[in-house]
Task: inverse folding
């Protein structure tokens, strides 16, 4: 089978690999679609970050680079290993792509397995990846979905789960006003969860395409251009001078963080969703004087079932966010290069490892 593998910074190659073995407790999946994530772009430009090096194996997977990329993917079950009796061949599935150490409680009541030591992700630290034609995954991380959900849209359930967990962390509820800083894929999908819960959503975004996408998709009530509008002042106008109840930082850009701090009401909640590769210059005095509650969020924890339910119920439509589909051979030029250098033209680009559906 073919797979896109990460060898190091700016070095991704399409390799021919043996098909994965579907051992006991495993599920074999024909990958239908895999999204290109911002994390993949960071690995390509600045890595290795989550990916192992050629000399340093990941402590759980034991793998060194090269590793197959891709952690936002959907597919169809083609085989099940011994001991798996609740998933069937032909079933549509998505994957919660964790690499978690043995002995960590990943049961339905756990709220912290995603914070366990050496936690990492399938498609970054090993275990195969969604940018390969096939993958074998532990049953625990495989989530069946309705066959009525198109598989291209299903590939967005993983990043939507990131938004779901971020909203859960914020405590946002129906009737609140939320400000989302940045309308990239995670910002848009966080906004989608907020709208599904009955929250009024304001988005701040430089890209015209992404502002338009937020409004057209129905995930934002207001989409502001920070070059033309004082976002904090506009939010206060929209809230009778009060300010936003919750805010989500989805850019890792300093000026966005500052804007969110200004736009929040006293006792508001600021959730940092983006991965920062550098230290932020934070106004601690404003945090204290407004009694802002600052919260971090990473990935998801037992979030997939509720996220899938939102999609299956029709409360969230993922189709509007798909702006491109490519094959493996176009991964760097049509995929990575577009998302790095031409963000004005794309939101979420999906890859078909097999070429089917293109």
Result:
């Amino acid at each position: 089978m073919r797979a896109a593998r990460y060898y190091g910074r700016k070095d991704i190659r399409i390799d021919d690999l043996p098909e994965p073995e579907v051992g006991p407790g495993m599920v074999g999946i024909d990958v239908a679609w895999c999204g290109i994530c911002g994390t993949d772009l960071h690995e390509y430009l600045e890595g290795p970050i989550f990916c192992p090096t050629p000399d340093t194996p990941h402590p759980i997977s034991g793998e060194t680079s090269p590793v197959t990329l891709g952690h936002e993917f959907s597919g169809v079950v083609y085989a099940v290993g011994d001991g798996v009796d609740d998933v069937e061949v032909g079933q549509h599935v998505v994957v919660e792509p964790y690499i978690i150490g043995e002995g960590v409680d990943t049961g339905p009541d756990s709220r912290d397995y995603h914070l366990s030591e050496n936690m990492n992700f399938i498609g970054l630290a090993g275990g195969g990846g969604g940018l390969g034609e096939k993958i074998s995954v532990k049953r625990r991380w495989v989530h069946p979905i309705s066959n009525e959900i198109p598989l291209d849209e299903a590939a967005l359930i993983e990043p939507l789960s990131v938004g779901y967990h971020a909203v859960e962390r914020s405590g946002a509820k129906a009737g609140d006003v939320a400000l989302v800083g940045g309308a990239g894929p995670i910002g848009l999908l966080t906004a989608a969860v907020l709208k599904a819960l009955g929250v009024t959503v304001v988005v701040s975004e430089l890209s015209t395409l992404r502002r338009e996408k937020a409004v057209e998709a129905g995930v934002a009530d207001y989409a502001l251009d920070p070059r033309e509008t004082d976002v904090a002042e506009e939010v206060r106008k929209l809230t009778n001078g009060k300010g936003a109840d919750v805010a989500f930082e989805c850019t890792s850009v300093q000026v966005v963080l500052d804007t969110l701090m200004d736009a929040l009401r006293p006792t508001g909640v600021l959730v940092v969703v983006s991965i920062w590769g550098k230290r932020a210059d934070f106004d601690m005095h404003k945090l204290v004087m407004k009694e802002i509650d600052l919260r971090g969020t990473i990935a998801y924890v037992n979030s997939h079932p509720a996220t899938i339910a939102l999609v299956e119920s029709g409360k969230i439509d993922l189709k509007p966010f798909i702006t491109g589909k490519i094959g493996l051979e176009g991964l760097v030029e049509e995929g990575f290069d577009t998302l790095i250098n031409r963000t004005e033209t794309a939101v979420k680009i999906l890859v078909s490892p097999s070429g089917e559906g293109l």
Remarks:
- The CA atoms of residues 21 and 136 lie 7 Å apart.
- The first strand starts at residue 2 and ends at 8.
- The mean pLDDT is 97.
